[in-house]
Amino acid sequence: MASTQSDTVLGSQIAPSPGSAVMRRAILRLAWPAALEMVLHMGVWMFDVAMVGRLGAVSLSATAVSGQVYWSLVFLMGGIGVGLTAVVSRLIGAGERREAGRVGAQGALLALAAGLALGVIVWAAAPGVFLVARLGQEASSLGVTYMRTICLGAPFLVTGMALSGVLRAYGDTRTPMLIVALTNALNVVGDWALIFGNLGFPALGVRGAALASLSAQAVGAVVFMALLFSGRLKARISLADVTRPDRFVVARILRVAVPASLENMFTDLARTVGIFAVTSLGSVAMASHEVTAAAESLSFMPGFGLAVAATVLVGQSLGAGDPARAEAGVRESARMSVMFMGSLGVLFLLIPRQLVSVFTNDPAIIDLASKCLRVTAFAQPFMALQGVYSGALRGAGDTRSPMLIAAVTSWGCRVALSYLAVFVLHLPLPWLWGIMVLDWGVKLAWVTVVYRRGRWREAGV
């Protein structure tokens, strides 16, 4: 059965004006749950670190290495959700609700297979990771246990991420946010119970932390599937479609998903390699860098939410054959993102010491991190616009351009210049944050050219 335009975020009566009050409300309705979902993800990560940190430095180092490797591989699979959002939103805009459900079902099957493959890879690679890390026998043993436990949840986690992409395609960012809130709550309770032996459970330490995450991820995936099978949401999938693989539909998803996954890979690897330049500056510099990153993350939340809004609006509008409405949605999302992130940038300039003091009371770290936060204040408008324009391209199905931009700028600008600054010119930490500002500026200039060229209007998915 075909859907009507009421399934779309904006409906069919919206004038393509960036100042439209209806459009602003639609964008905010999409953006705030996505932004809050990101806050929840960050919050549970901080809680996990705090809980494991009470077990001591050895346990914390073991889970830090494990987590970095595991989540880097998980984010590679995040491209499946991006591909599903692009394809399904286009179908919803075109009124092809039945086909949208079929694509969502095939995406769930693809994500399950990818999650199973990821779990096998992590299980097999765990000993080798700690052989390379050289953390010592105790930390290595704990780390292998953690990785081999948490990787059992990979099929649930990757499937949940993919189904979140399906729901976003329908304009439903609230349901994924609520499910994340549920899983985070289960994770927190599980950490408290399984790490330290509360509620009648044995004290399992590092393995307990992994079991808590695994259990929460499994519950989240089951809730996603139950809701989508139930027909209670606009988004729905059929069990029959899940059990009948369609290689043409899977190939359609992968055309968008693979470049999105590679974008994540290039960005994450560049960030990891760049850390070694920071560590060479000493422990105070490394701590200051982490504190600055934590304070700066305050601005990511609204920016991420508005980028998601641009992705969904472009996909649905192009599906409805209305590129003018897509452009209007992007302009309004960009304006709002610059306003929110720019305002936080002003705070970074005016009260950096107060902001970084939330994360540390060390005077040396506060002083250096404050300088870095002032530098990164100038990047906020660049990050805002770059996020929205890249989100618009992804919504149109063009994930290759953001991938290419990320690969070239992250490595050719950020990594290369950071190593030059530290190992050749011997410059202090604020210069590395200045290089990050430059990197965001180059990313913005490039993605703006691609967006304004306008080929995304005819991009196929």
Account of the 3D structure:
This protein is mainly α. The chain folds into two domains: 18-245, no CATH class; 255-461, no CATH class. The protein has helices at 21-53, 57-77, 79-93, 97-133, 137-150, 154-169, 174-196, 206-230, 239-242, 247-279, 283-296, 300-319, 323-350, 352-356, 363-376, 380-395, 400-424, 429-453. α4 (97-133) runs antiparallel to α6 (154-169) and α5 (137-150) packs parallel to α8. The protein is globular. Residues 1-5 and 12-16 have low confidence and may be disordered.
Q: What is the gyration radius calculated from CA atoms?
A: 22 Å
Range of strand content: under 5%
Count of domain modules = 2
- Calculate the terminal CA-CA distance, rounded to whole Å: 21 Å
Put simply, the count of helices is 18
Short précis:
The chain is 80% helix and 0% strand. The protein has helices at 21-53, 57-77, 79-93, 97-133, 137-150, 154-169, 174-196, 206-230, 239-242, 247-279, 283-296, 300-319, 323-350, 352-356, 363-376, 380-395, 400-424, 429-453.
Set out the fold topology.
Layout: H1 21-53, H2 57-77, H3 79-93, H4 97-133, H5 137-150, H6 154-169, H7 174-196, H8 206-230, H9 239-242, H10 247-279, H11 283-296, H12 300-319, H13 323-350, H14 352-356, H15 363-376, H16 380-395, H17 400-424, H18 429-453
Feature tags:
0% strand, mainly alpha, 2 domains, single chain
